[in-house]
Amino acid sequence: MSQAAGLFLVDEIMLVAIDENIDDGDIVALQDRLAEEVHANDAQGIVIDISALEIVDTFVGRIIAQLAGIGVLLDAPTYLVGMRPAVAMTLVELGMTLPSVRTARNLQHAVSRLRSGR
Amino acid sequence: MNRLPRLRGQLFERHEITVEKDIVRARQAVGRAMDGLGAKAIRKTRLVTAASEIFRNGLNYGGGAVALIHCDAGNRMVWVDCIDDGPGIEDMALALRDGYTSGTGLGRGLGGAKRLVDEFDIVSEPGVGTHVRLAGRA
Ligand SMILES: Nc1ncnc2c1ncn2[C@@H]1O[C@H](COP(=O)(O)OP(=O)(O)OP(=O)(O)O)[C@@H](O)[C@H]1O
Ligand SMILES: [Mg+2]
């Protein structure tokens, strides 16, 4: 996994920034690292940043769902930030509802919601 | 294989899709073609997303594919062909159904792509290959 995704700890929250070039080979390593980091740092939540993505197809949608699944398992609420309006509309048409992911308008919103525990 | 008719318009770009990075390259070219026709973000996003789905299918199931992107400036349409010589699709109705996957996907790619575009065509013959055609209005 090179620049396919960045993992940062910001104020006890794990930030995952997904890059356009993420591919099949990156996914398992990313999931493993996310699980480890959340656990090791006792992270309060996960924020997945997709602002670098011009589109989200079913492949990336599945990655987001899997990362959020780790959040559920580790009791770390997961927020998605940086979704472009056009992307939100295409996700609906792909039938990707991403039930285990909450969306926040931006990183600050996500962080303050995680802080206030909702 | 039953072939789709020749495309009108200008060939914009041709991309071989043999590794995953090629999917991104080819779909970015679709985006540039839409930009060239002055497409709004939503129209561009719809076509690029649909193209990404069929390019990934062409790689994953077709064993690699060729992407042909045509611009029809007169009709303000971008056409995307994805052609592979893989195993083909035995049961087309099943493949198009939301939720059906023969692999580990969500089975939403083909049906989703069809809903996202203005024109959708697919021909496939077992043992010969698959040709998917999409078009979006800018
Ligand atoms: N180019 C192709 N060649 C052979 N079979 C194909 C091709 N494209 C699609 N298929 C078949 O059609 C099925 C449905 O495709 P679709 O894109 O809808 O779902 P998927 O690729 O399995 O999952 P998803 O796209 O949601 O990640 C595939 O599982 C595969 O069996
Ligand atoms: Mg697919």
Would you write up a description of this structure?
The complex is a heterodimer of chains A (118) and B (138). Chain A has 118 residues and is of the alpha/beta class. Chain A has one domain: Transcription Regulator spoIIAA, CATH 3.30.750.24. Chain A is built from 4 helices and 5 strands, in the order ββαβαβαβα. Chain A has a 5-stranded mixed sheet, with helices on both faces. The model of chain A has no long low-confidence stretch (mean pLDDT 91). Chain B has 138 residues and is an alpha+beta fold. Chain B contains 4 helices and 5 strands; from the N terminus they run βααββααββ. The radius of gyration of chain B is 14 Å and the shape is globular. The A-B interface holds A 20-21, 23-25, 54-59, 61-62, 84-87, 89-90, 93-96 and B 20-21, 24, 27-28, 31, 41-42, 44-46, 48-49, 52-53, 56, 98, 105-106, 108-109, 111-112, 115-116. The complex binds adenosine-5'-triphosphate and magnesium ion. The site of magnesium ion (MG) has 5 residues of chain B, from α2. Chain A: Residues 11-114 form the STAS domain. Chain A: This is RsbT antagonist protein RsbS.
